[in-house]
Design a protein that fits this description.
Length: about 260
Protein backbone atom coordinates (compact mmCIF):
# COMPACT_ATOMS: atom_id res chain seq x y z
CA UNK A 1 0.00 0.00 0.00
CA UNK A 2 2.78 2.43 0.88
CA UNK A 3 4.50 2.01 -2.49
CA UNK A 4 1.17 2.47 -4.28
CA UNK A 5 0.54 5.71 -2.41
CA UNK A 6 4.06 6.95 -3.18
CA UNK A 7 3.57 6.23 -6.89
CA UNK A 8 0.20 7.93 -6.86
CA UNK A 9 1.70 11.00 -5.24
CA UNK A 10 4.45 11.18 -7.83
CA UNK A 11 1.96 10.89 -10.67
CA UNK A 12 -0.18 13.53 -9.02
CA UNK A 13 2.81 15.86 -8.92
CA UNK A 14 3.11 15.42 -12.68
CA UNK A 15 -0.62 16.01 -13.13
CA UNK A 16 -0.88 12.94 -15.34
CA UNK A 17 -4.60 13.37 -15.58
CA UNK A 18 -4.08 16.68 -17.33
CA UNK A 19 -1.70 15.07 -19.81
CA UNK A 20 -4.50 12.81 -20.98
CA UNK A 21 -6.61 15.81 -21.95
CA UNK A 22 -7.16 16.50 -25.66
CA UNK A 23 -4.97 19.22 -27.10
CA UNK A 24 -7.94 21.33 -28.15
CA UNK A 25 -7.99 24.46 -26.03
CA UNK A 26 -10.94 24.95 -23.68
CA UNK A 27 -12.70 28.24 -23.02
CA UNK A 28 -11.08 30.13 -20.15
CA UNK A 29 -14.13 29.68 -17.92
CA UNK A 30 -13.86 25.89 -18.24
CA UNK A 31 -10.08 25.60 -17.95
CA UNK A 32 -8.98 23.34 -15.09
CA UNK A 33 -6.91 24.87 -12.35
CA UNK A 34 -3.34 23.80 -11.79
CA UNK A 35 -0.38 23.20 -14.12
CA UNK A 36 -1.13 22.78 -17.81
CA UNK A 37 0.86 22.21 -21.01
CA UNK A 38 1.12 25.48 -22.93
CA UNK A 39 1.12 23.93 -26.39
CA UNK A 40 0.43 20.64 -28.20
CA UNK A 41 4.20 20.13 -28.56
CA UNK A 42 4.73 20.49 -24.83
CA UNK A 43 1.88 18.06 -24.23
CA UNK A 44 3.58 15.49 -26.46
CA UNK A 45 6.89 15.94 -24.65
CA UNK A 46 5.18 15.49 -21.28
CA UNK A 47 3.36 12.41 -22.53
CA UNK A 48 6.73 10.94 -23.54
CA UNK A 49 7.94 11.67 -20.00
CA UNK A 50 4.83 9.99 -18.59
CA UNK A 51 5.42 6.91 -20.77
CA UNK A 52 9.02 6.68 -19.53
CA UNK A 53 7.79 6.88 -15.94
CA UNK A 54 5.26 4.13 -16.50
CA UNK A 55 7.93 1.94 -18.11
CA UNK A 56 10.27 2.51 -15.16
CA UNK A 57 13.21 3.11 -17.51
CA UNK A 58 15.68 5.40 -15.75
CA UNK A 59 17.59 6.32 -18.90
CA UNK A 60 14.37 7.08 -20.76
CA UNK A 61 13.14 9.21 -17.85
CA UNK A 62 16.37 11.23 -17.88
CA UNK A 63 16.18 11.71 -21.64
CA UNK A 64 12.52 12.72 -21.56
CA UNK A 65 13.06 15.21 -18.74
CA UNK A 66 16.04 16.78 -20.51
CA UNK A 67 13.89 17.09 -23.63
CA UNK A 68 11.06 18.78 -21.73
CA UNK A 69 13.35 21.25 -19.98
CA UNK A 70 15.41 22.05 -23.08
CA UNK A 71 12.40 22.76 -25.25
CA UNK A 72 10.03 24.12 -22.60
CA UNK A 73 12.13 25.68 -19.82
CA UNK A 74 9.13 27.56 -18.38
CA UNK A 75 6.91 24.47 -18.17
CA UNK A 76 4.47 24.34 -15.25
CA UNK A 77 5.79 20.83 -14.60
CA UNK A 78 9.41 21.84 -14.00
CA UNK A 79 9.68 20.70 -10.40
CA UNK A 80 7.75 17.48 -11.07
CA UNK A 81 9.95 16.38 -13.95
CA UNK A 82 13.13 17.33 -12.07
CA UNK A 83 12.01 15.20 -9.12
CA UNK A 84 11.69 12.20 -11.40
CA UNK A 85 15.10 12.85 -12.97
CA UNK A 86 16.63 12.97 -9.49
CA UNK A 87 14.90 9.69 -8.66
CA UNK A 88 16.16 8.15 -11.91
CA UNK A 89 19.74 9.06 -11.07
CA UNK A 90 19.19 7.64 -7.59
CA UNK A 91 18.12 4.36 -9.16
CA UNK A 92 21.34 4.45 -11.19
CA UNK A 93 23.25 5.03 -7.92
CA UNK A 94 24.60 8.33 -9.20
CA UNK A 95 24.19 10.17 -5.91
CA UNK A 96 25.90 13.37 -7.05
CA UNK A 97 23.53 13.91 -9.97
CA UNK A 98 20.54 12.81 -7.90
CA UNK A 99 21.41 15.54 -5.41
CA UNK A 100 21.86 18.15 -8.15
CA UNK A 101 18.46 17.47 -9.71
CA UNK A 102 16.67 17.22 -6.36
CA UNK A 103 18.12 20.61 -5.47
CA UNK A 104 16.91 22.01 -8.80
CA UNK A 105 13.45 20.58 -8.12
CA UNK A 106 13.30 22.21 -4.69
CA UNK A 107 14.48 25.52 -6.19
CA UNK A 108 11.73 25.30 -8.81
CA UNK A 109 9.14 24.53 -6.11
CA UNK A 110 10.16 25.32 -2.51
CA UNK A 111 7.07 23.40 -1.34
CA UNK A 112 8.25 20.09 -2.83
CA UNK A 113 8.51 17.81 0.19
CA UNK A 114 9.58 14.97 -2.11
CA UNK A 115 12.63 16.94 -3.29
CA UNK A 116 13.46 17.95 0.29
CA UNK A 117 13.19 14.30 1.36
CA UNK A 118 15.63 13.20 -1.36
CA UNK A 119 18.06 15.92 -0.28
CA UNK A 120 17.87 14.47 3.24
CA UNK A 121 18.21 10.85 2.11
CA UNK A 122 21.39 11.21 0.07
CA UNK A 123 23.64 12.57 2.86
CA UNK A 124 21.93 10.35 5.43
CA UNK A 125 22.84 7.20 3.50
CA UNK A 126 25.93 8.17 1.52
CA UNK A 127 28.10 10.42 3.69
CA UNK A 128 31.35 8.65 4.43
CA UNK A 129 33.10 8.54 7.79
CA UNK A 130 36.16 10.33 6.40
CA UNK A 131 34.51 12.71 3.93
CA UNK A 132 36.10 16.16 4.24
CA UNK A 133 32.68 17.83 4.14
CA UNK A 134 31.07 15.24 6.41
CA UNK A 135 29.61 17.57 9.04
CA UNK A 136 28.43 20.12 6.47
CA UNK A 137 26.71 17.37 4.48
CA UNK A 138 25.05 15.86 7.55
CA UNK A 139 23.87 19.25 8.81
CA UNK A 140 22.29 20.07 5.44
CA UNK A 141 20.66 16.65 5.27
CA UNK A 142 19.16 17.03 8.72
CA UNK A 143 17.82 20.46 7.77
CA UNK A 144 16.18 19.09 4.64
CA UNK A 145 14.57 16.28 6.67
CA UNK A 146 12.99 18.79 9.02
CA UNK A 147 11.99 20.89 6.02
CA UNK A 148 10.20 17.91 4.44
CA UNK A 149 8.28 17.31 7.67
CA UNK A 150 7.19 20.95 7.85
CA UNK A 151 6.18 21.16 4.20
CA UNK A 152 4.17 17.94 4.07
CA UNK A 153 2.35 18.86 7.27
CA UNK A 154 1.00 22.01 5.62
CA UNK A 155 0.63 20.66 2.08
CA UNK A 156 -2.79 20.46 0.39
CA UNK A 157 -4.14 16.98 -0.26
CA UNK A 158 -3.06 15.41 -3.53
CA UNK A 159 -6.19 15.02 -5.67
CA UNK A 160 -5.52 11.39 -6.66
CA UNK A 161 -5.65 10.29 -3.02
CA UNK A 162 -8.52 9.81 -0.61
CA UNK A 163 -8.41 11.61 2.74
CA UNK A 164 -7.25 8.42 4.46
CA UNK A 165 -4.56 7.75 1.84
CA UNK A 166 -3.30 11.31 2.11
CA UNK A 167 -3.09 11.09 5.90
CA UNK A 168 -1.17 7.82 5.60
CA UNK A 169 1.12 9.29 2.96
CA UNK A 170 1.89 12.29 5.17
CA UNK A 171 2.82 9.89 7.97
CA UNK A 172 5.09 7.97 5.58
CA UNK A 173 6.94 11.14 4.63
CA UNK A 174 7.39 12.07 8.28
CA UNK A 175 8.53 8.53 9.10
CA UNK A 176 11.09 8.53 6.30
CA UNK A 177 12.37 11.97 7.31
CA UNK A 178 12.74 10.90 10.96
CA UNK A 179 14.56 7.75 9.84
CA UNK A 180 17.03 9.88 7.87
CA UNK A 181 17.53 12.10 10.93
CA UNK A 182 18.27 8.93 12.88
CA UNK A 183 20.80 7.72 10.31
CA UNK A 184 22.52 11.11 10.39
CA UNK A 185 22.74 10.88 14.19
CA UNK A 186 24.21 7.37 13.88
CA UNK A 187 26.87 8.76 11.54
CA UNK A 188 27.71 11.26 14.27
CA UNK A 189 27.61 8.48 16.89
CA UNK A 190 24.98 10.43 18.77
CA UNK A 191 23.11 7.36 19.99
CA UNK A 192 20.48 9.07 22.14
CA UNK A 193 19.47 11.40 19.32
CA UNK A 194 19.38 8.50 16.86
CA UNK A 195 17.24 6.36 19.16
CA UNK A 196 14.75 9.21 19.63
CA UNK A 197 14.55 9.79 15.87
CA UNK A 198 14.02 6.12 15.03
CA UNK A 199 11.30 5.86 17.69
CA UNK A 200 9.61 8.91 16.14
CA UNK A 201 9.88 7.29 12.70
CA UNK A 202 8.27 4.09 13.97
CA UNK A 203 5.52 6.02 15.75
CA UNK A 204 4.68 7.70 12.44
CA UNK A 205 5.09 4.64 10.20
CA UNK A 206 5.95 1.27 11.83
CA UNK A 207 8.23 0.12 9.01
CA UNK A 208 10.28 -2.99 9.91
CA UNK A 209 13.38 -1.34 8.39
CA UNK A 210 13.04 1.53 10.86
CA UNK A 211 12.86 -1.02 13.68
CA UNK A 212 16.06 -2.66 12.45
CA UNK A 213 17.76 0.73 12.52
CA UNK A 214 16.51 1.23 16.07
CA UNK A 215 17.64 -2.21 17.21
CA UNK A 216 21.10 -1.77 15.71
CA UNK A 217 21.48 1.64 17.36
CA UNK A 218 20.37 0.26 20.71
CA UNK A 219 23.03 -2.44 20.29
CA UNK A 220 25.73 0.14 19.57
CA UNK A 221 24.56 2.21 22.54
CA UNK A 222 24.95 -0.82 24.83
CA UNK A 223 21.21 -1.10 25.50
CA UNK A 224 21.27 -4.83 24.91
CA UNK A 225 17.95 -5.88 26.45
CA UNK A 226 16.15 -3.15 24.53
CA UNK A 227 17.85 -4.22 21.29
CA UNK A 228 16.80 -7.84 21.82
CA UNK A 229 13.21 -6.78 22.58
CA UNK A 230 12.95 -4.83 19.32
CA UNK A 231 14.43 -7.75 17.37
CA UNK A 232 11.90 -10.12 18.90
CA UNK A 233 9.14 -7.73 17.86
CA UNK A 234 10.42 -7.74 14.29
CA UNK A 235 10.76 -11.51 13.95
CA UNK A 236 7.39 -12.14 15.58
CA UNK A 237 5.73 -10.83 12.43
CA UNK A 238 5.19 -13.85 10.13
CA UNK A 239 4.99 -11.57 7.10
CA UNK A 240 8.24 -9.73 7.68
CA UNK A 241 10.67 -9.61 4.74
CA UNK A 242 13.25 -12.41 5.13
CA UNK A 243 16.11 -9.93 4.70
CA UNK A 244 14.72 -7.80 7.54
CA UNK A 245 14.24 -10.90 9.69
CA UNK A 246 17.82 -12.00 9.03
CA UNK A 247 19.16 -8.58 10.00
CA UNK A 248 17.12 -8.62 13.22
CA UNK A 249 18.39 -12.10 14.10
CA UNK A 250 21.99 -10.99 13.54
CA UNK A 251 21.52 -7.98 15.82
CA UNK A 252 19.86 -10.14 18.47
CA UNK A 253 22.69 -12.72 18.31
CA UNK A 254 25.27 -9.94 18.73
CA UNK A 255 23.40 -8.48 21.69
CA UNK A 256 23.03 -11.90 23.29
CA UNK A 257 26.76 -12.61 22.84
CA UNK A 258 27.67 -9.31 24.50
CA UNK A 259 25.31 -10.08 27.38
CA UNK A 260 26.94 -13.46 27.83
CA UNK A 261 30.30 -11.70 28.15
CA UNK A 262 28.83 -9.46 30.80
CA UNK A 263 29.06 -6.28 28.74
Amino acid sequence: MKRIILAAALLAAGAVGLLAQPTTAKPAAQAPKGPMPKSPDELKALQAWQAALQAGDSDAIIKSVDDVLTRFPSTDFKSAVLETEAEAYKQKRDWAKAQIYADMALTADPQSFRAALMLAEIPAKHTGEHDLDKEESLTKGEGYAHQAITIVGAAPKLPQLTDDQWAEYQKEIVGQAQDFIGLISVNRKNWDSAIAAFKAAIASTPEPAFKVHLADTLLQAGKLDDAIAVCDQITADPNVNPIIAKAAKSIKDSAAALKAKGK
